[in-house]
Amino acid sequence: MSPDPSPPVRDATLDIAKALAIILIVVGHVWRALEPAGLVQDPLLTRVDSVIYMSHLSVFAFVAGLFVAGGMRRDGPWYYARARTVTFLWLYTLWSTLQLLMKIAVGSAVNDPVSPVELLRIWEPKEQFWFFGWLVLMMLLTAATRPWRSRRAAAATWGLAGAGSLAVWGLNWNILGGEGLALTIFFFSGVVLTGRRLLGWMKGILVSHAVVVLLVAGAVWVVLGATLLGTPPTAYGNIRSVSSVTLGALGSLAGVVSILALSLLLARTGSTMQWLARIGQRSLVIFVAHVFFTAGTRIALSTMGIDALWIHVVGPTVIGVIGPLLIYAVAQRLRQDWVFEAPRWLRHLTGADRTLVPRR
């Protein structure tokens, strides 16, 4: 019998999960920009914001950790960490600078005008780009702890990550690497679990079971977020308590589980959701560039005198997802890879481009 010439089909579940998470990130930034514009106020503002921030970053943190152990075992922990650190710091520097320059250029047209002095305060992360500093810290911690060495190492690392995350749940410090520390438990849960093991488990889940999980976990996520009983991992730490942190951790976990369950269901529809999976595969592109398009669309709508809330939510969100994908397509056509990854000269300079013999 001749071998099947067709390549193996990539499981779309995690790509779809990343797509849902990045869309929620765009929606979250769009939603928060509506308050200064006077289009939405409390209690609706905070309740919706709490639901969104309860889980979208937790999904990204979890998925980001899933294949790190495999990569570090293949390439060596410190080389893998160094290569990712170079890329993350490049993207942080490039795109935070571009976003600041955009805000300086449009002046008072944006909700939060900035001073040119902010360009020099590179150690203070700007808006969403703090996530890159957090990722660098996670890579270094993983290389140092290597939780895949043994079950004891995995358990100890996971336990310390959980205790540390709960201790700083909802708290942030305005320094690179000092924000989002509560997400550490989700990242190391991914590292310990691994993507191969997770996808293997998910293949055996029945559709009916996935629907039940989605409904139950989704209800817990939304209720704990909308009622403000739970503190999101990266927000509202100024009003946190033992109970709100406990319920916030439960709500955030429920959000991750429900998004994974929904992603599993959507992935099993076959090629119908391939467009959503492609968005997930380009989630980094959308993450770094979406604010240019969401802010521009909101300014354009306001200039035209449009103040319908749903238009100000849907319009910037759609443009915020599509716009970065167009930039990516142009960059690829022009072979300008440095726009979304560290340039070759920088990788060479930092020793992050050498070819390694896979380690057994």
From TrEMBL:
GO terms, molecular function: O-acetyltransferase activity
Annotated compartments: Cell membrane
Any Pfam family matching the protein: Acyl_transf_3
Topology versus the membrane: Multi-pass membrane protein
Organism classification: Bacteria, Bacillati, Actinomycetota, Actinomycetes, Micrococcales
Protein name: Fucose 4-O-acetylase-like acetyltransferase
BP GO annotations: enterobacterial common antigen biosynthetic process
Species this chain originates from: Nesterenkonia xinjiangensis
Similarity section: Belongs to the acyltransferase 3 family.
Signal peptide stretch: none
